[in-house]
Every structure is written in C-alpha cells, then in structure tokens.
C-alpha cells in the first residue's frame, strides 16, 4: 500500500476515535445525568435549563426544611393534563425536561400555611443559595370580624428569584368554611416593581378560594414533586377561584346604626338559614349546578356579613343553562317539599321549596346580550314580571361558615335590585312593585296555568 494511502487511513482512524471519545464524554457528562439537555446554539444555558435548575435548587431547599409544597403552576399542570403529550414523551428515548420547563419566567408552588414553621432559617438558606427573596404579607381575614387593632400580618406570597427565574410560593390558609384561601398580592411602597413580571403571575391578582385538593407524590423531569391528584379539576377551580371578602368594617358601621336582632326567634332563624344553605350546597354539587346568593340573602351578606333576620326566606340564583330536570327530585330527596313551580325552562322558571318554616326560593336567570334577568309570576292572576340586572360574573365568598358564590359585581347587582338606598333596612317589601328593576312582562295564557302555575 502506498505511503500516502496509509497516511490517509491513519488520519481517518484517528478522527473516528476522537469523535467516539467525544460522544462517550458527552454521554457520561450530559445525557446520562437526569434533567434537561437543551443547550442554546451559543453553548449557554437555554431558558428551560435555567428554569429546571432553579426549580431543582428550590425543591432541594424545601425538602431540607420539610415544606410540603405542591405544584400549582397552571402551565406545568396543563402539560400534565394532556394525554397526547404524555404519549409523545414515551417515544423520546433520552432524558429531557417536558413538564417543568414551560418557558415561562415563573414557576408556582403552593404551601399549606399551617405547615409553615422555619421562616427565618428557610429564607436565610435561600439567600445563601443565591436566591433574592421578596416577602408579601397582609392582614389575616380570619380576624377581620373582630374589632381589633392587632396589626399582625401573615405571609401571603413569597417570590424567590435566581438567574432571572421566579419561584412563587402561594400560602393557602384554612378557613372556617372548610376550604383553602390565598390572599391578593399587593406591593407596598418601596418594593421593587421590577422584581418579577407581576402581570404574568398565576396567583395574586385577586384573593382565591379552593376546595382542599388531594395530593400525590410523583416524579417530574427527574424531580420529586407533589401535584393535585385531579389535575383537571384543580385547573378548573383556578380559573374561577376569585374570592370576595365580606366587608366587615362596613358591617360593623351598619350594625351600630341598626343593631342586629338578638331575639331567640332571630337566632333560631339564622340557624335554620345556615342549615338550609348547607343543604342546598350539598344537593346541587353532585348535579354540577353552581348557584349564588341572590336578592335579600345576597344583600345580607354584602351589607351586614350575615342574614336579614326579618326576611324569612333564603334566595339563590342559578343560570338557566345549568338547569337539570332532576333538580326537583334531588331537593325532595334531601328532605325539602316543593311549595310552588312557576314558568317553564324557556321562560321565567322559578322554584320554591320549604324546610320547616323557612322557604328556599330558587330563581333561574336568563342571559340576553349584556343583561341578565329572572322572572316572577303572580299565582292568582297569571301576571308575569321580569327583573333586569347588568351582566355579572361569579366569585366565591363566605357566609355562615359556608363557601358560597356571589355576583362579583355585587354593588351593581344589588343597586339594580334595591336602588341607591340599598343600605337602609326596609321591612315593608312588595316583590311586584318595590324592586328598582321590576318590569311588567305580560301574563300566562289561562289555558296553560295548570302547567305553568303549580302551587302545592
């Protein structure tokens, strides 16, 4: 073999050996390690690498201090809930970052506040790991009903920043209605408004309320992480979690002007209302029918953080789109008797049930463009009425130790129904003429009374 050919052959062997050695080095130092393997073209860490490394450092710190966190990040949980993505990931042979690397500048975890113990030590350790820390505190709403000047504040959110990536920790507090609550995130004067992309935070724009999620420990992208067992349900709750706190200070002012009725009859009525509201919630939840406090019951919550003792009934609203044919049977099974049924699903449906001597009025609301209305019927004449409200969305609130919905735009809702003097108690009330938003709406044909006007 000519010398030139041998030289070329040796060069090819040397190049091949060098390439094989490089592949072995890369496999041992990168691919064989758990975690992401996404390098930018410049050789620097890509954003997803930074996110994974930051989350890894944070979770190691949380594990050291025994913090029972769970993943509450909507982007990461959405990836988890997609079966197609999980199927795709089964086809990828090498380790990679699929769920925690969302390419967002924030990753969110939640923490049960009653498990928070090592505040000073944890935050100091975080700073020693290179995290910059922002603490956001606020008043404890569980003490708001007390006329106190305590001034003690509770942690609501922690923001930890490392390499430009933010870890948000949301504190969840147990409330008397057996649900979890987190506060709104509000920056105080002097705080760095450039610390994070606050508009991109999943939590904190408003206070929120959640059912207690069941958690499971799993492995995501090589890291031990707790997640809600029912991810889809948690994500659905998160979209509609906005919570409105009762206006305790205004309620105290109201009760100074108009002292609450403390008679045995009033106390007993409040007990019956509490029992009836809890029963309604238990009855409608399995049917997936959301309801909200309406009329006088909503007014009592907004005005005095309680019920109006002289109202003698409970009022709830339901969108007609959520009506289910078996709702009457469900209430009867729960022990209520049907008092009357007016109207029909297509027009002015209204149900009334009786529990002991307290009436539960169920008003069905119809959406019509930018307004919402519910109907009323006079049984003896067949006259129809319509009560018109501006459109509204639903928020969570608490009344009588129960997590209930109310219109988010509560003041607009009540002003439409009761006028500008809604804050003044009015014992004399005619449902056909007193409401500010009542309109005549014709009459039911006499031939249809037997079907549309049923009194029991």
UniProtKB/TrEMBL annotation:
The chain crosses the membrane at residues 7-27. The keyword Membrane applies. Its main location: membrane. It is found in: Membrane. One of its GO terms (cellular component) is Golgi membrane. Keywords: Membrane, Transmembrane, Transmembrane helix. It holds the Pfam family FKTN_N. Residues 5-274 form the Ribitol-5-phosphate transferase FKTN N-terminal domain. It is a single-pass membrane protein. It comes from Champsocephalus gunnari (Mackerel icefish). This is Ribitol-5-phosphate transferase FKTN N-terminal domain-containing protein. InterPro entries: FKTN/MNN4/W02B3.4-1, FKTN_N. The keyword Transmembrane helix applies.
């Amino acid at each position: 073999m000519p010398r030139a050919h041998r030289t070329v052959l040796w060069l090819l062997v040397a190049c091949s050996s060098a390439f094989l050695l490089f592949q072995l080095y890369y496999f041992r130092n990168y691919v064989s390690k758990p975690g992401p393997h996404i390098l930018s073209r410049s050789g620097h860490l890509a954003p997803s690498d930074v996110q994974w490394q930051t989350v890894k450092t944070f979770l190691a710190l949380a594990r050291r201090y025994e913090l029972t966190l769970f993943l509450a990040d909507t982007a990461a949980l959405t990836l988890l809930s997609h079966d197609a993505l999980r199927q795709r990931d089964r086809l990828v042979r090498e380790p990679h970052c699929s769920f925690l690397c969302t390419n967002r500048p924030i990753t969110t975890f939640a923490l049960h506040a009653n498990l928070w113990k090592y505040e000073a030590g944890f935050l100091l350790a975080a700073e020693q790991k290179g995290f910059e820390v922002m603490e956001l505190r606020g008043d404890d709403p569980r003490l708001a009903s007390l006329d106190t000047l305590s001034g003690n504040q509770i942690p609501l959110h922690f923001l930890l920043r490392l390499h430009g990536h933010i870890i948000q920790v949301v504190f969840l507090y147990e409330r008397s209605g057996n649900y979890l609550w987190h506060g709104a995130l509000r920056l105080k004067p002097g705080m760095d408004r450039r610390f994070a992309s606050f508009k991109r935070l999943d939590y904190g724009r408003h206070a929120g309320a959640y059912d207690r999620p069941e958690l499971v420990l799993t492995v995501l992208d090589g890291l031990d992480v707790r997640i809600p067992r029912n991810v889809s349900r948690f994500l659905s709750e998160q979209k509609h979690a906005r919570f409105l706190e009762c206006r305790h200070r205004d309620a105290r002012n109201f009760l100074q002007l108009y002292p609450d009725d403390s008679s045995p009859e009033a106390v007993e009525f409040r007990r019956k209302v509490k029992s009836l509201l809890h029963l309604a919630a238990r009855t409608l939840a399995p049917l997936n029918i959301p309801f909200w406090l309406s009329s006088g019951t909503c007014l009592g919550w907004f005005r005095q953080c309680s019920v109006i003792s002289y109202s003698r009934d409970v009022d709830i609203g339901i969108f007609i789109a959520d009506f289910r044919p078996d709702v009457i049977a469900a209430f009867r099974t729960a022990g209520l008797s049907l008092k009357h049924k007016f109207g029909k699903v297509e027009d002015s449906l209204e149900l009334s049930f009786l529990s002991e001597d307290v009436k539960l009025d169920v008003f069905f609301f119809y959406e019509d463009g930018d307004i919402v209305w519910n109907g009323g019927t006079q049984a003896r004449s067949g006259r129809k009425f319509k009560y018109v409200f501006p459109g509204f969305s639903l928020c969570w609130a608490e009344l009588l130790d129960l997590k209930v919905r109310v219109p988010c735009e509560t003041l607009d809702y009540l002003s439409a129904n009761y006028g500008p003097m809604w804050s003044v108690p009015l014992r004399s009330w005619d449902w056909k003429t007193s409401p500010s938003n009542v309109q005549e709406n014709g009459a039911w044909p006499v031939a249809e009374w037997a079907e549309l006007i049923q009194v029991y």
